[in-house]
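Lab notebook, bench 4. The sequencing result for the construct came back, and we need a structural model before the next group meeting so we can plan mutations. Quick request posted to the team channel:

Model the 3D structure of this chain.
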Amino acid sequence: MTHLPQPPSLSLRSAGAFVLMVLGIAKSHAQQSSATFERWAASRAIPLVSVDPVKTTADLRQLASIIGSARIVAFGEPAHGAHQPLAFRNRLFRYLVEELGFTAIAIESGLPESRHVQAFIQTGVGDAQQIAHEYLSYGFGDWRENVELIQWMRDYNANPAHRRKIRFYGFDISLGGWGSAIPRPAPFEAALSLLSRADSASADRLRGVLLPVLRLPDAPPSLTTDELNVISTAVDELLSRLERNRPVLLVTTSAADYEWGHRNAVLSQQAIRMLRAMPRGMSQDFSAGLPASIWEPLETRDVSMAHNVRWILAQEGTAGRLLVFAHNGHVMNARYRGTGIVSVFAQPPNQLGVYLRSAFGGDLVIIGTSSAANGSGLSAATLDTTSLDASFARVGPRRFYLDLRSSRYSRDAREWLAQPRLLRANFGAFDLNVPPTAFDVIVFIDTLTPALAVRPTP
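Done. Here's the predicted structure in token form:
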């Protein structure tokens, strides 16, 4: 019998050396690949003079060709409560308004309360600091950068040379929010107030059903299935009666009043859907971890926010152009995957940007923010050397923006960016996404520092 020749046997030591050699080659290739991408990024990066508003806009001018005729620019921050993304948002919005004709900004804050902010911007009645404190959700009004945004918008509108006035919106689901001057069931109350102008008996009856159940001490409210069913039925009736009474209401109120009241009824439905999806008995102490099923209310929220953004753009009319500002994790065109507490999700939820991309396609430009370090006042954090942030930190400029879409003209850059990459989030954790799918443009800011606190009103 003829025997086939056998391959030479490897000793354990030789086998180990072979594995280490292969791993070394792979690591070397990855380093070379990253270096190639970083050289490409360095050749394309557009340095920023400053993140804070300054007189020059020369460094922003290339954004005009990047944005083109898109009606929506979505700008994301890597964490809530950092100065640099908020300051650059203000600078970016000024540029978009003054040079590209943008007409409004919508931020990740409660939609019902935002009408009070819009009223200040239109009329000037009140104080920007107090308005921000009372009507921006989640404590956002206690950051000076947000007060400065609102005051600049008011000053812009007060100038008679600006014939088209700019407007402010929130687009988040809201049950009042922290620090809000409005009772917790803000959207329910606003919709009921509108209905009372045409059908006070029905409004009083529905108020009796809704508000006692919703005014609960915890947030979000812990409601039983039966209570949610009762509320859901009442909210559906509220919306139906508003639509039935629309002709009467358009006579007795303005078209804007009707649109806002009707939207608050829709928002009430959104809130109920999110509360239905909440895991029963979930603790408000997130340090204890999140349940795997939390992905469902998170996705429900982002779907609702996308619908609200579409409504906002409709209010701006066919010539309207909108800056949307929220966390990177919302504006990205991707599912929410990452490390830390979000790794427990039973499935990664779709984000706001996914639904906006589906609705608006090329009429949407998504700008994300990358950062490499935390400055004084923020917790110490370790930078993953393989992350997108680390690569950007090696590009050179301390602050720049980069059009990721131009990577299609470079095979090396395109192939490197086609792989999932880590991106810092919330001052320390990491999200995982394919950068050119999630974002069209990245703004890199080397170091984040805390947002500026507003001094208490005397």
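The two ends are 101 Å apart (CA to CA).
Will bring this to the meeting.
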